[in-house]
Design goal:
alpha/beta; Nucleotidyltransferase, domain 5; Hypothetical protein af1432; 7-stranded mixed beta sheet; 5-stranded mixed beta sheet; 23 helices; 48% helix; 16% strand
């Protein structure tokens, strides 16, 4: 698939209920081919696994809270009637002596049939979720829940069998109270089976990791508050983890990015992360907001959907809502391809091609936005769009490209964010891409057929626009000349419009 096709299937809703050791969550997803959108997300911090380490059973209060939440979730699902529903329970229900009784009560009181994942299955689905959101992921996945830590290795798109370890905050709870030194010894001992998972790159899954990342973002004044695909050196995140582990409960409540509910368990998560870095020899960390829930979805997709890049699919679905011709993105991409050969590249031609295609898929994103505010609104929407499969730098790149497509100045909105995430060459390529899309759209009136009968090429320092016989009038517009001039100036080129027009 090229990434320009219409979604292969009609949109459909999928429900996932995740019964974890700490939280019980219902997420409703809208699937448009490979594009996955979260349309509803409700979480209850039931704390099912809170007493597991001391009693071997589920928390009584947690069971009460979980059943109440699941009754509500069943009612929501009955109203929504999704195409499929996945219901999965993880470590607490799996390990508790009364786990089967709990599942029986859930079935009897709500009608929901719970699938209890084994530790190996939980590690597998978590890694699949990482791949769903980061298709080129390569490294060790670490999914930390309330009662367990799952590790798996991703290599070239394949997930090797993983392991589960009793390293969630509830599994580490000590009746004697929090003692960092004693906990470090416990964590080091329980991490011994992880020796087979040594590597430089960790892909971190779970709310605790995300909270630690948010603290780090705040400490360094990071400008883009999106956790997914946030990349951090192991040394930097270890310093943040140590800072968190030293804080009192009242001090933790004051740290940016830490909720009052998370403050209770975050020091345990920080110590586990510190231990992982040491045990596995990690050099860098990438955060993944996708995990087990998305892994369950990912496994259920058909082969054509699985083969599609999530960034291209997401951009196509987002752009298609403007009602433009489904063939326009592909036509734009073909038309501007030769132009971009004269623009700076990233050093990765394959990735440059994906980003160009993604920008073309978004070419008319601003069509239904107010023209007085279109550039700012499009920029912000693309920078923060819930579309996976892109780094933070790539988010900024696409935002800059679409800012130029709608006539925005080279300075762009949020210049501090852009300058922090992109090099000068990347900014120039983004602007060139956006101005080329702007020229192509205005030249052709967004008609793929008309665009196919016009051409643009760069040769010997000149940008030349031409038209096929019978289509020369398409080059006559004053607006076309302005758009072509803007593109030529950005690329440092002279301009030649039509045969015999002469270079200017």
């Amino acid at each position: 698939m090229t990434g320009f096709e219409e979604p292969a299937t009609a949109p459909r809703d999928i429900a996932v209920i995740d019964i974890g050791s700490n939280s019980v969550r219902l997420v409703l997803y809208r699937l448009e081919g490979r594009a996955i959108w979260t349309v509803f997300n409700e979480k209850v911090l039931a704390g099912l696994g809170r007493d597991l380490a001391t009693t071997g059973r589920l928390s009584e209060d947690g069971v009460t809270a979980a059943l109440a939440a699941l009754k509500r979730f069943a009612a929501v699902i009955e109203g929504v009637r999704p195409a499929r529903t996945f219901i999965a329970a993880t470590a607490a229900v799996r390990e508790a002596a009364d786990g089967p009784d709990f599942c029986g009560r859930v079935a009897g009181e709500t009608g929901l049939q719970v699938r209890v994942l084994t530790g190996t299955e939980e590690a597998h689905f978590s890694a699949l979720g990482v791949l769903a959101g980061i298709p080129d992921a390569d490294g060790i996945t670490a999914d930390m829940g309330g009662a367990s830590l799952e590790l798996a290795r991703i290599t070239a798109g394949d997930v090797a069998p993983g392991i589960t370890l009793p390293l969630g905050p509830f599994a580490l709870a000590d009746p004697k109270g929090f003692d960092a030194g004693r906990l470090r010894e416990t964590i080091a001992r329980r991490l011994k089976p992880a020796g087979a998972y040594r590597g430089e790159h960790l892909l971190a899954v779970g709310g605790a990791w995300r909270s630690i990342a948010q603290v780090h973002m705040a400490l360094i004044d990071y400008p883009l508050h999106i956790v997914h695909q946030y990349e951090i050196s192991a040394a930097a995140i270890r310093d943040t983890a140590r800072l968190i582990a030293r804080q009192s409960r009242s001090s933790l409540d004051k740290l940016p990015g830490v909720s009052k509910k998370r403050a209770e368990t975050l020091p345990y998560a920080a110590l586990v992360l510190e231990g992982l870095i040491d045990r596995l020899g990690l050099k860098r960390i990438t955060m993944s907001a996708w995990g087990v829930r998305e892994g369950l979805l990912f496994e259920a997709l058909d082969g054509d959907c699985l083969a599609t890049d999530p960034l291209l699919a997401g951009c196509l679905a987002l752009g298609a809502r403007q009602g433009i011709s489904p063939t326009l993105p592909g036509a734009l991409n073909a038309w501007i391809g030769r132009l971009l050969e004269a623009a700076p590249g990233s050093g990765d031609p394959a990735r440059d091609a994906v980003l160009t295609a993604a920008a073309c898929n978004l070419a008319d994103l601003g069509a239904r936005l107010h023209p007085d505010h279109r550039t700012e609104l499009v920029f912000d929407q693309i920078l923060r769009a819930p579309i996976p499969g892109q780094t933070h730098a790539e988010r900024a790149f696409l935002a800059c490209a679409l800012n130029a497509r709608y006539g925005g100045a080279a300075g762009t909105p949020q210049p501090a964010t852009v300058s922090r995430l992109l090099t000068e060459d990347q900014r120039l390529r983004a602007r060139t891409l956006g101005l080329a899309i702007r020229l192509a759209c205005d030249l052709s009136g967004r008609s793929p057929q008309l665009l196919a009968n016009a051409g643009a090429a760069v040769d010997k320092g000149v940008l030349t626009l031409t038209a096929q016989d019978g289509y020369a009038d398409v080059l006559l517009g004053e607006q076309t000349r302005r758009r072509a001039r803007a593109l030529a100036d950005a690329m440092g080129l002279k301009l030649d419009i039509g045969r015999g027009a002469g270079a200017s």
